[in-house]
Design goal:
heterotrimer; A mainly alpha (about 325); B mainly alpha (about 280); C alpha+beta (about 375); A: mainly alpha; 2 domains; 2 strands; globular; C: about 375 residues; Rossmann fold; OB fold (Dihydrolipoamide Acetyltransferase, E2P); six-stranded mixed sheet; 20 strands; about 35% strand; elongated
């Protein structure tokens, strides 16, 4: 590096300079790109390649198979493109989609799944918002402890926690036991494999996903705003509705989407805790695939779920990007 | 404000109770001699019987071992890939394919697992047909699948950490003569190390816990621990699973407690140092 | 310690040359066609408010921004596109940007390590520079264990360790409290003289600029409005913006009545006074000009002489007196309703100036005081 004595290095070669001035408008990216165009391609390229292979291409394959026909073969579907005298002949079948749209089983399952996910999201919101609010307003020491309590279940096995509810909800389970002993009921109440148990399972599992984004948002609120509102004559409830709630909308949006989207396609919870007469769409996909060996229909189900979820997913990415951009710079090393 | 405070605090307590009762009930009943949850066999409990059953169950142990190996490998690779992706998104400014990368790293987080699992299995089948690899489903496919979805989480963690990172530190290092690669190694990486570790732990946990995706991409001979547990619990309550749950909760709880305590200790020490320096005030 | 023309303006090529440099962020021109020359060994201050473009200009000198147009020459070489790690320039950041995970010693050594010097050499030079900034006892501490003033010295030491020819300082004294600021100002001057480094300082604080600079440039909305020594800028501002930006000033608008060989007569109708200024300024009779008079140059007499005023005098009534300790600021309302600001040294204490409130007074100044501005 040039010290006082060493001669200065001549400026960069023409090609890099052109690249530089072509990107001049990018501002601070300028000097760095100049030397490290290749390194930069690697840094972004390697993960992109991996994801393209293991995320994008699989979806294309799912799409492809949804248009094929089930066969008794390995793999159990007809290839999409058959070669006839050297010319590719596409064999597109809409049979799987036809089945999905004509058999009421699928439509009912979709609607049921959406409803379950939506209701669960609302319950999570109703439960999680006050919890996040209380944590955000707690003192410094309490806050860390409370967050730890919220996060701890998240790190323990999801499957085991759902399983725990079986023990609580079954006819000879803890809750029925308590009810019987208290004399509130005379026969065990069927709690398991009902909508009730399904909601409990989903809310239970996804509650931290609602609380954390809400907390992250609420924590940033400036308490001075509420004081200003009070000073101007607003009652606590009014201040909450007019000051806190609007500011927390991004948190509400993020938390709700983080619950709703995966809940639609849930598999484990409905299987262990849910009804047997009305199943959710995730279970349908799995059954079609493993039990019926009907890969095309299973793929069709997947595509339709995706079409349904595309809008919420894009919304979520928008909300998160805005949150990321608005993040204040932290103390270095904090 | 007062009324609101009471309401939200009550809900908080109820919510915490709601979160912990199931866990605690499992722990308690893991020591219950009777199979039935409602019958506390006072005469013979508490007992470690079910722990014995658990630890001598070969299927469970094999599955646990497989899960550990897969999780270690998946966590490490996905942390590397996720750090690359997070750095690319946070530092490289606009580049071609950036929106695509953003989409590919945020979608897996919310994607229903059945879809991810299905698509990955179909990929492996297609690959096997086309180039003969991978040969059948097993530990390898499970690991590859786990890396792919864990990576998204790590990316979000790293990107978020870098976005809040004081860029003037990196600029100062460049100003002093360090090239961008060196800046990353000597300045950025050491300072985001806690986030990298958090990402690794997150990836490890997600891989270790994963059921649905594993079910799709596992082969006949390879079962992960969640798969074994799932097949057991589909038939109802199983006390040795209670024992397993207790073990896992204890490990995680001690880990979280230790980490939190240590972090607070470091924080307190920093604050004390800063106060001393300000007081000396040269 | 303002080293005045010991460096006389002569053919030595400027060490830093900016040639019509512009920087646009999208459509917004942060820096607009700036041309500047900075000589070796001087302390050049870029003074401006927020949004004036001074920080962007500094960053272009450091290499963190590339000019949208124009060129940056350092020591004769075109450095416009050279990245920061290849420039013989070092910067002291406003937030200090000390590496929190390294000790003071490692922080300062960092730049030297990039030069691939031997370990002994690095240690020696680190010790040397820490000695200069008086931070040797703190070599093993980490940044969070230092106070603000101490961190600033470490940042300075780190920037100087490589003995750069050019040092850029971004609001170096902004984070310090007043006492510390004064002390540090003089220390900076000492160090600069001792090491012979060229300083370019960016600041919004006029006092800082006036104390430190051998020459300064006033910036407004991306452009350099005036370049000169602090005296030139203060006593001969080129327009009303500069006159008003540095210190306070009274601006009296009027028309040129007569242009003499050595002086100028201006009629200020709104104020009802005639100004005779002993200055040569390019203007024509009838042209609208502004007479800028500094508050400390106005004499306040409490006897309201009636009758003809003559030139360079004004009658008025004292509205307010603000006691500042060392001076008092009088706001005097003149006949037209305008308020004139007068600074009076507190030679005899508070009581004397208190009496002036609501008093009728005569303001006067000598012919050398008004600065006539045509824009």
């Amino acid at each position: 590096m040039p010290s006082s004595e060493a001669p200065l290095r001549p400026p960069s070669e023409p090609r890099a300079k052109t690249a530089l001035f072509a990107r001049g408008a990018l501002g601070r990216a300028g000097p760095r790109i100049q030397r490290f165009i290749r390194a930069r391609q690697l840094i972004a390229g390697i993960p992109s390649l991996w994801l393209a292979l293991f995320f994008l291409i699989p979806f294309l394959i799912v799409l492809e198979i949804s248009f094929s026909e089930p066969r008794l073969a390995i793999p159990p579907y007809a290839p999409l493109i058959a070669w006839l005298h050297g010319w590719p002949v596409p064999h597109i079948h809409l049979s799987s989609y036809a089945e999905l749209f004509t058999d009421p089983l699928y439509l009912r399952s979709y609607l049921y799944s959406i409803m379950v996910a939506a209701v669960s999201t609302l319950i999570c919101l109703g439960l999680g918002y006050p919890m996040a609010y209380a944590i955000a307003r707690a003192g410094e020491a309490w806050r860390t402890f409370l967050l730890m309590l919220i996060i701890l279940p998240f790190w323990t096995s999801f499957l085991l926690r759902v399983y725990a509810w079986i023990g609580l909800l079954q006819n000879d389970g803890l809750i029925n036991d308590v009810l019987l002993r208290l004399g509130l009921v005379h026969h065990p109440v069927t709690l398991l494999q009902t909508d009730f148990s399904l909601y409990i399972g989903i809310v239970y599992s996804y509650l931290p996903f609602m609380i954390l984004p809400l907390y992250a948002n609420l924590e940033k609120h400036d308490p001075a705003l509420l004081e200003a509102a009070a000073d101007l004559g607003a009652r606590p409830l009014t201040a909450f509705l007019r000051v806190t709630l609007p500011q927390s909308l991004p948190g509400i949006a993020a938390g709700s989407l983080l619950v709703f989207i995966p809940a639609v396609g849930e598999y484990v919870i409905p299987t262990l805790l849910g009804r047997t007469d009305q199943i959710m769409i995730g279970r349908i996909l799995s059954d079609e695939f493993f039990d019926n060996r009907n890969w095309p229909v299973a793929s069709g189900v997947a595509i339709l779920i995706l079409l349904l979820l595309v809008v919420p997913i894009v919304l979520l990415q928008r909300v998160e990007r805005r949150q990321l951009d608005a993040q204040p710079v932290e103390e270095a090393g904090a | 404000m007062r009324a609101k405070g009471v309401f939200s605090r009550t809900v908080l307590v109820l919510g915490l109770v709601f979160l912990y009762v199931p866990i605690l009930s499992m722990i308690v009943y893991s020591f219950n001699n009777s199979r039935l949850v409602t019958v506390w066999d006072g005469a013979h409990s508490p007992t470690l019987k079910w722990y014995g059953v658990l630890l001598s169950d070969g299927e469970v142990l094999d599955a646990a071992w497989l899960s550990v190996r897969v999780a270690l490998c998946a966590a490490t690779v996905s942390t590397i890939l996720g750090t690359l992706a997070g750095t690319a998104l946070a530092r490289l400014g606009p580049f071609r394919g950036r929106s695509l990368l953003i989409g590919m790293t945020t979608a897996p987080i919310v994607m229903p697992e059945v879809i991810s699992g299905l698509s990955l299995l179909l990929l492996f089948v297609a690959l096997e047909q086309a180039i003969g690899w991978p040969r059948g489903m097993g530990a390898l496919t499970i690991t590859l699948a786990h890396i792919s979805f864990c990576m998204a989480y790590v990316t979000v963690v790293i990107q978020s950490r870098l976005a809040g990172f004081d860029e003037s530190l990196e600029e100062a290092a460049q100003d002093l003569g360090a090239r961008p690669a060196k800046v990353f190694w000597r300045i950025t990486l050491p300072l985001i190390l806690p986030a990298v570790l958090a990402g690794w732990l997150l990836a490890f946990t997600l891989s270790w816990d994963d059921l649905v995706i594993s079910q799709f991409v596992a082969g006949p001979g390879s079962s992960t621990l969640p798969m074994v547990i799932f097949s057991k619990v589909r038939l109802g309550v199983s006390p040795d699973v209670n024992a397993l749950a207790t073990l896992m909760v204890s490990v995680v709880a001690s880990g979280v407690v230790v980490a939190t305590v240590w972090m607070r200790h470091r924080q307190k020490r920093r604050e004390r140092d800063m106060q001393l320096a300000a007081a000396a005030n040269l | 310690m303002n080293a005045q023309p010991s460096m006389s303006p002569e053919p030595a090529p400027p060490y830093v040359r900016l040639e019509a440099v512009s920087k646009k962020f999208g459509e917004f021109p942060a820096v607009d066609g700036v041309s500047l020359e900075i000589r070796r060994g001087e302390i050049f201050c870029l003074l401006g408010g927020s949004g004036s473009g001074k920080t962007t200009l500094l960053r272009m000198l450091a290499g963190f921004e590339t000019p949208s147009a124009g060129r940056v020459y350092i020591d004769g070489e075109d450095m416009s596109a050279v990245p920061p790690y290849e420039r013989p320039v070092n910067m002291m950041f406003q937030s200090y940007a000390l590496f929190p995970h390294m000790t003071v010693e490692r922080n300062v050594a960092f730049g030297l390590e990039q030069e691939r010097l031997g370990r002994q050499e690095v240690r020696r030079r680190v010790g040397e520079i820490l000695e200069i900034v008086q931070m040797s006892p703190y070599a093993a501490r980490k940044p969070h264990q230092l106070s603000g003033g101490q961190r600033q010295r470490v940042a300075l030491a780190r920037a100087l360790a490589k003995r750069p020819k050019l040092l850029l300082l971004d609001e170096p004294l902004a984070a310090l409290d007043r006492k510390l600021r004064e002390r540090t100002q003089f220390e900076l001057l000492n160090i600069q003289e001792r090491l012979g480094v060229t300083f370019i300082v960016v600041t919004h604080d006029q006092e800082e600029a006036m104390t430190l600079a051998t020459r300064m440039g006033v910036m407004d909305r991306g452009r350099i409005v005036q370049v000169g020594t602090p005296t030139e800028i203060y006593e001969s501002p080129v327009n009303r913006f500069v006159a008003d930006f540095i210190g306070s000033v009274n601006l009296l608008e009027g028309r040129v009545a007569a242009v003499g060989a050595q002086d100028l007569t201006v009629h200020c109708e709104p104020c009802g006074c005639t100004i005779r200024a002993a200055r040569r300024v390019e203007c024509a009779p009838g042209e609208t000009v502004w007479a800028a008079i500094r508050p400390e140059k106005i004499v306040l007499a409490s006897d309201p002489s009636s009758g003809e005023l003559g030139h360079n005098r004004l009658r008025g009534k004292v509205r307010e007196v603000a006691y500042m300790g060392d001076v008092s600021i009088c706001l005097v309302e003149i006949e037209s309703g305008k308020t004139v600001r007068v600074t009076l040294p507190n030679r005899s204490g508070l009581a004397a100036h208190r009496e002036l409130r609501h008093a009728a007074v005569t303001l006067s100044w000598d012919a050398g005081s008004p600065m006539i501005l045509t824009k």
